[in-house]
Design a protein that fits this description.
Pfam families: DUF397 (PF04149). It is built from 1 helix and 4 strands; from the N terminus they run ββββα. The chain has 79 residues and is α+β, with helices and mostly antiparallel strands.
Length: 79
C-alpha cells in the first residue's frame, strides 16, 4: 500500500437506492485546493489498492461523466 496521509476522509460513491455490500468506489481528497492536490481512489473490496491522481484530472473526469462522455461504457447494463 502506498504511503497515505493519516486521517483521510473516505467518501463512498453509493447510489441512494443501493442495497448490499457493494463493492463500491471510495474517494478521499488530500491536502491542498489547487490542481495538483492529490485525490485517492479505492474499491471497498480491496481497500489496500489505492490509485492516486490529482484534483485537475479528477475534476476533468467528473465533468466528463456529467456530460455523458462515458455513457457508452454502460449501454445495455442493468442500473
Amino acid at each position: 500500500m502506498p504511503d497515505l496521509p493519516p486521517n483521510l476522509t473516505w467518501e463512498r460513491a453509493v447510489p441512494p437506492d443501493a442495497t448490499g455490500p457493494g463493492p463500491w468506489i471510495e474517494i478521499a481528497f488530500g491536502e491542498g485546493d489547487d490542481g495538483d492536490a492529490p485525490v485517492y481512489i479505492r474499491e471497498t473490496s480491496d481497500p489496500d489498492n489505492v490509485v492516486t491522481t490529482n484534483r485537475r484530472k479528477w475534476d476533468a473526469f467528473v465533468l466528463g461523466v456529467q456530460a455523458g462522455e462515458f455513457d457508452h461504457f454502460v449501454e445495455g447494463m442493468d442500473h
